[in-house]
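Subject: Interface between my chains keeps coming out wrong

I've been trying for a while to get a sensible model of this assembly. When I model each chain on its own everything looks fine, but I need the whole thing in one frame so I can look at the contacts. Pasting all components below, labels as-is. Any help appreciated, I'm running out of ideas.
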Amino acid sequence: MILKPRLQDLKIIGFYLGKIILGLAMTMVIPILIGLCFGEINPTLDFLISIEISVLLGFFLIKICRTDKDLNWMQGMIVVSLSWVVAMVLGAIPLYLSGHWKSFLDACFDAMSGFATTGLTLASNLDHISYTHNLWRHLIMFLGGQGIVVIALSFFVRGFSGAFKMYVGEARDEKIMPNVIHTSRFIWLVSIVYLILGTLALGITGIFNGMRPVNSFFHGACIFMAAFDTGGFAPQSQNILYYHSIVYEIITVVIMILGALNFKLHYHLWMGNRKEIFKNIETRTLFITILAAFSIVAVGLAQAGSYPSAILLFRKGFYQLISGHTGTGFQTIYAGQFIQDWNPLALVGVIFAMALGGAVCSTTGAIKMLRIGIIFKACKEDLKRIIMPERSIVIEKFHHIKEVFLEDKLVRSALIITLAYIILYGLGALVGMFYGNPFLEALFESTSAAANVGLSCGITQATMPAGLKITYILQMWAGRLEFMSVFTILGFLYATIKGK
Amino acid sequence: MRINSKLALTILLTVLFLYRPVCFAQELSSNELIKNAKQYDGQSIIYTGEVIGDVMARGNYAWVNINDGDNALGVWMDISLAKEIKFTGNYQARGDVLEIAGIFHRACAQHGGDLDIHVQSLRNSSPGRIVRQKLNFDKANLSLILLGILFLIWILTLFRRK
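Reply #2:
Try treating it as a single job with all components included. I did that and got this:
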């Protein structure tokens, strides 16, 4: 029998949701400070209005739903999935007020794209946007990459057992430290240290490239946030093509790869365990899949004669591939060039890379390397069983921080999530085709949205149908949360209607 | 008389030679260039748009990004030409609108395969300007009203606690 959710359930969900909204509101102080520094009055007002609405909503929920009770699994998952929807709406308010988004739906699209670290954008006249709004676009990627709930856990929530349930709900099922709050803080420590180093590297490169010092460091910070959190927004409409610099491209490739690595692996590297990077199943799988995907892209580009020399083919092909594989979405070609200059084989190579993604417990989306590695190991185990004598016992292991035995439940879990992603990519492609787009282009854009990548072949623009915008928003949301929280909220809605 | 007509012809030919890209090149938009990049690869074209972002000097040359309203394209020009740019577009300024004549490259071998234009000549068709931002009173009023509501709630909470 399905039980109808009780009022107590709603109160607990509302209370913790209120806390997370307050946490989100506090982050809007950063763009306000930037707005004041640059003397941008109206953009500062946009954020003042947004912060006031957020504080009012958060305060209202906390007061109405005040409770001392801890979260159970269902409530934790629902808090997480609702947090992302509420964050999208609240985060879209300053964007919409700026006038650079044609409708509130477009602003919501970009807010979800930012929080989910996707990078698809519907902004118009991006080259005239204020520093304040531009910083917010990149900051939401930084916040979303670490996880909105991780922010609340790190700074606004005192230790309680429900914290782990929300942490898991945000698609981070690995604890780096024994305590989930310490884990969240470690994730922030890693990100802040890299933020400083990355901004310095990109800022100095920007100055050497001829940019004004203020712009070069502002762009450096924005590009770092988008690269490390595998987001893909950039301060200018041309994305990375704006900089016309190979050094900039090399630095962003390094940051993108760092962002695609497991935070647990970062921890072990920081602790001096450098061998882990060579032994870990995720890094090994990543290396193999990059090689495989790049081979497909390179053959495709060579067949199409897209670039006059092998070096240029490598520079353009490898950059878009790494950007797709790590789920970043930076582009050094125009969206239309994917269709005009690249052939279908090269596009398939990029789609394949986008669909796979980076490591678990990183800022990337998509199926992820651990699951691909596990499925590959399971296939190997089954093949061994066929080849070896019947009486022999076949045991497969893999190395992920420690030696792990390949159990059926691990394989099942990896296969379910992989299947769910493939269905999500396919459904988005179907909707894209329904609106008149060719199959490959629809699949490219759908995979990019669902895998939180952000590469675009030109479908994503402000003039696309509202139905397609909503589809991509749902894909970005489900893809970022890895389904479990989304399934829970669907179950909760079903129980509300059908439960007794 | 014959000398004069020869001189006039020479001057005309020289002018035509100097302004050859402007005279014979096609005026194209960024969308047309991206969509038909193979067709226009290596050809003289005219492209018009607003200078945005930074003028990035690289030795004797500079990168300038020019937006025609649909896309911004990278333009490679001599530093002396780049010095003619007075305003670049951003939140607080409208950039100079340049009409440039140059060679279009679909995948430039000199610049890592970028789609770009190498400028031969340019004309500043509309100078840029600083955009003065006026205070939006609707936004200011709304933020004050919301601040008042927040303050009221805070006072009420204090009273209830007491």
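Reply #3:
Confirming on my end. The longest helix of chain B spans residues 137-161.
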